[in-house]
Write a structure and sequence with these properties.
Radius of gyration: 20 Å
Distance between the termini: 26 Å
Number of helices: 13
Strand content: 5-15%
Order of helices and strands: EEHHHHEHEEHEHEHEHEHEHEHEEHEE
Structural class: alpha/beta
CATH architecture of one domain: Alpha-Beta Barrel
Helix content: 25-40%
Shape: globular
Largest sheet: 10 strands, mixed
CATH superfamily of one domain: Enolase-like C-terminal domain
């Protein structure tokens, strides 16, 4: 566990032949739960196993435990899976994307996060990302009268919402937001034109009918997607949203398995699946999700905020470069301290990331430097309505 600006959990697996691989095991605000699961229930099962048997080990860790799925377990499995793919790549002397079947594209299109205290500041930030070469930008803005609107952080490139030992409280007002959001994207389109792709994250704040209304109001601004528009526990709720708007829908960053998104994909209720390496069982399981999605013309859009480490980003980029039904990759930049702790081969140029040609996932950890940044307990915020009712953060 290390905290170079935010907390990360990293699993390192070493073979008796001297190869090692690393995997991200970070679960934002619940890091120690994954550490305990790894130490007590996973690591003892790995000793003496053949590191090349990635699929068998995945099945052991999933089927071999009566209590299946869930974010803690699947994050632990993902860490093991990523580390084993890293080892296999190093043993073969090849980057992981080559082991998956080779590149399906020359680079991975990514989107950045533009946020501001008000509409103008957010629009200015969109312009800054365009100047940096981004082809796609997520836009979030402070909302007048709403304390702590989602996505607006203290910084610009390194937004991290987990910032208190106990959860900070924010306030939410749906009607104010629904009236505000179209004004934000009207300004951005007027100032930056139609050549940039725009994305927006609702962060589970709306009921299905409210999400349908928002999608309709944003249709003139041609969003690349509207993300997490309503809570995902009820997958059927997305049918109501789908029937009300043609704005593309994206969901899945909190999914831990193919079963969380099976109905959404098979019923074509979403356009992008956002499950990611670190929380959905690693590269092995994410390939299954992508394969199902491809049957229904659903594309990938893996979560990529700073609550995953460069080890996960590296693994995700190898997956992205290979996966046939790729859509886009979220790319929120890490702090300089994080990049120093996790030296990596991936690079950004003209709106695209490339994982590089280093064997394995192309990311390592400087353990001596990591030790200089001790774990610092932080929690994600919570949200309440103005009458005090708990809401979805």
């Amino acid at each position: 566990m290390t905290c170079p600006g935010r907390n990360f959990v990293t699993l390192k697996i070493v073979t008796d032949q001297g190869l090692h691989g690393i995997g991200d095991a970070t679960l934002n605000g619940r890091e120690k739960a994954v550490v305990a699961y790894l130490e007590e229930h996973v690591v003892p099962l790995l000793i003496g196993k053949d590191a090349s048997r990635i699929e068998d080990i995945w099945q052991l860790l999933y089927r071999g435990a009566y209590w299946r799925r869930g974010p803690v377990k699947m994050t632990a499995i993902a860490a093991v899976d990523t580390a084993l793919w890293d080892i296999k790549g190093k043993a073969a002397g090849m980057p992981v994307y080559q082991l998956l079947g080779g590149a399906s594209r020359d680079g991975v299109m990514v989107y950045g996060h533009a946020n501001g205290a008000d509409i103008q500041e957010t629009s200015d930030e969109v312009g800054r990302y365009i100047e940096m070469g981004y082809k796609a930008v997520r836009a979030q803005s402070g909302i007048p009268g709403v304390k702590g609107a989602y996505g607006v952080g203290r910084g610009k490139l390194h937004y991290e919402p987990a910032d208190a030992t106990l959860p900070a409280e924010t306030l939410w007002n749906t009607s104010t937001y629904l009236n505000f959001a179209p004004k934000l994207f009207d300004r951005i389109r007027n100032e930056h034109g139609d050549n940039v792709e725009l994305l927006h994250d609702v962060h589970h704040r709306l009921t299905p009918i409210e999400a349908g209304r928002l999608g309709q109001s944003l249709e003139p601004y041609r969003l690349f997607w509207m993300e997490d528009c309503t809570p995902v526990e009820n997958q059927e709720a997305f049918r109501l949203v789908r029937n009300k708007t043609t704005t593309p829908l994206a969901v899945g960053e909190i999914f831990s398995s193919i079963y969380d998104c099976k109905d959404l994909i098979q019923n074509q209720l979403i356009d992008y699946i956002r499950a990611t390496v670190v929380h959905a069982g690693g590269i092995t399981h994410l390939r299954q999700i992508a394969g199902l999605a491809a049957l229904y013309q659903v594309r990938t859009g893996c979560h990529g905020a700073t609550d995953l480490s460069p080890a996960c980003m590296g693994a995700a980029l190898h997956f992205d470069l290979w996966v046939p039904n790729f859509g886009i990759q979220e790319y929120m930049r890490h702090t300089e301290e994080t990049d120093e702790v996790f030296p990596h081969a991936y690079s950004f140029s003209d709106g695209y990331l490339h994982p590089g040609e280093a064997p394995g996932i192309g990311v390592d950890i400087d353990e001596e430097l990591a030790a200089k940044f001790p774990y610092n307990p932080k929690q994600l915020p919570i949200a309440r309505l103005y009458d005090g009712t708990m809401w979805n953060w």
